[in-house]
Amino acid sequence: MRKLFESPSIVDLRLLANYLEHAGIRVEILNEHQGGSPGVPHWGLSVWAELWVREPAQYARAETLLAQYRREQSVADVGEWQCSACGEANPETFDTCWHCAAPAKHG
Fold it and tell me: Interior CA angle at 71 toward 68 and 77, to 5°?
């Protein structure tokens, strides 16, 4: 096994793990339940969840897919608009508010 990535956010790490697994890369998450656990003493140490590639032969492809995943995520970051009816923030691509279904007033 070889470590590919680490993150303080288990959500981000799980999304990446699913992305890689969907592409046929066998991965394992370590320290999944260690970081940010209330009541668990860490003595000032940062314990981040880690994503490991199980098969050494798949590591280079996993690195390529990680770079592709990061590019896709940066392109996916879009602006927001605020609903005039309820005040909730909505992605720019939404035509109606996710919270109250009020129509977007773009422009």
Answer: 140
Yes or no: say if 106 and 99 are a contact pair by the CB < 8 Å rule: no
45 touches 37 (CB < 8 A): no
- DSSP element (H, E) containing 76: helix 59-76
Give the separation between CA 63 and CA 11, rounded to whole angstroms.
19
Q: Which residues contact 45 (CB under 8 A, 6 or more apart)?
A: none
Q: How many C-beta atoms lie closer than 10 Å to residue 24's C-beta?
A: 10
Residue 93 is predicted with a pLDDT of 80
DSSP type of residue 67? H
Cα(first)–Cα(last) distance of the chain, in Å?
51
Is the predicted pLDDT of residue 48 greater than 60, yes or no?
yes
Entry pTM:
0.62
